[in-house]
Amino acid sequence: LSTPKEIDTLLNNELSNEYISELYLCAGIGSKGLVRDLGFDAQSKIVELNFLSRLKLALFSYNSMRINQLGRIVFVSSSTAFQPMPFMAIYSAQNSALLSLGRAWSQESRRDGVNIHTLCPGGMNTNFQSSSGVRKIEGEKGFSLIELLIVISIIGILALIAIPQFSAYKARAH
Fold this sequence. Notes:
Layout: H1 4-14, E1 22-25, H2 35-38, H3 40-68, E2 71-76, H4 89-108, E3 114-119, H5 128-132, H6 145-173
Parallel strand pairs: 1-2, 2-3
Helix pairs in contact: 3-4
């Protein structure tokens, strides 16, 4: 799913009649270098894949989640969302945008029965560093994607248990 055409094919052919109750959006590319040297095409590809494709997939899934009053969207961003990153400026900027979108949309969706979360992990064991030209620090450890998804699933299960109990507690308190 690295081009708009591939995403459209997935949405229009494979998922056109499917109800998606949980959506985990974790994809990412980056390029190391000065903003002025990377060029518009390389930087727009980063924004298109890392931000716009996730937004498109989330919007596609959101309406059926809203109709069913049940759903969860998890945007997996990065700890780079919290600071400017010289030599990775567009990557950190789109992660900041993703974090902001997720936080705002989670408030907007509160009454729709859809939970929207944004996760900003630190280093992870993927090939992101080598493919984006970033040096992996010796001894650097991170989570694998599977470990991250397991943690997200556990948090989701705990939320499914805790939220109804808290709502009932709050109703009794009033």
